[in-house]
Write a structure and sequence with these properties.
By secondary structure, the protein is an alpha/beta fold. It contains nine helices and ten strands.
Length: 265
């Protein structure tokens, strides 16, 4: 059984009213009938240009956005029907790493508070246990324990993204949506973050839905690749197959348009 099973998911946004009056005019289908499965321990890469619907899809599978229609099953449970304690329990196992390491961290909170926030909400730990867990998390993402006492503005973009990753790991999730986690970083720093995600996956047995506009980054990290275009998945398959023998013209265009990224192992 797949860890995540998405069936014919749709997200429709109505267009706003015309400046000339007359009410709404049509709709935008940001995600249009997407079906996919993600199995435990793998990375499914979602690749496409800006506006293809990939980030909307990532938020839909976590129920950060409500779908217009379709089904989402996580660990065999219907996520759209989950409420209350059941939904909170499912959310422990599903986390997100945001694209913007500058906007996703509260500038008024120290790092220890940011990383510990999921623990405060979901776990009954005393202050000493929370502090120990925060230190452990910071070490796991390559930051010094002293970072706990500082504020986000005191860190570089790559360091802030490491803080965001530590926060996502706080509850020991099984599944993480990584939404363009390196697009706001320069190439060398982005490569370090990609390598960190690969290392954490090996160490913790994580499952990723990795979203990116960069085919080389997705090719490096993903087990399988799904290519999105105008809200639909136009091609999906093993990473090697999709990148070496693409079937869809849009996939071929993406491969031709993006340079190689050296990340090493």
């Amino acid at each position: 059984m797949p860890l995540l099973d998405v069936r014919e998911i749709v997200k429709v946004y109505p267009l706003g009213e015309s400046v000339f009056g007359g009410g709404a005019h049509g709709e935008i289908r940001a995600v249009d009938g997407v079906s996919l499965q993600v199995h435990g321990g793998e990375t499914l890469g979602i690749v496409g240009e800006s506006g293809s619907g990939k980030s909307t899809l990532g938020r839909l599978v976590l129920r950060l956005l409500e779908p217009t229609s379709g089904e989402i099953h996580f660990q065999g449970q219907d996520l759209r029907q989950a409420r209350g304690a059941r939904l909170r329990q499912l959310r422990r196992d599903m986390q997100i790493i945001f694209q913007d390491p500058f906007g996703s961290l509260d500038p008024r909170m120290r790092v220890r508070e940011i990383v510990a926030e999921p623990l405060v909400i979901h776990e009954r730990l005393d202050a000493r246990a929370r502090t120990a867990r925060v230190r452990e998390l910071l070490r796991s993402v390559g930051l010094e324990e002293s970072a706990a006492d500082r504020y986000p503005h005191e860190f570089s973009g790559g360091q802030r993204q490491r803080i965001g990753i530590a926060r996502a790991l706080a509850l020991r999730p099984k599944f993480i949506v990584a939404d363009e986690p390196v697009s706001a970083l320069d190439v060398s720093v982005g490569a370090q973050i990609v390598n960190l995600l690969a290392q954490l996956q090996r160490e913790l047995g994580l499952t990723y839905l990795f979203i990116s506009h960069s085919m080389p980054v997705v090719r490096y990290l993903a087990t399988r690749i799904a290519v999105m275009h105008r809200g639909k998945i136009v091609e999906i398959g093993p990473a090697e197959q999709v990148t070496s023998a693409p079937v869809h013209p849009y996939t071929r265009a993406l491969l031709a348009a993006t340079p190689e990224m050296s990340v090493g192992r």
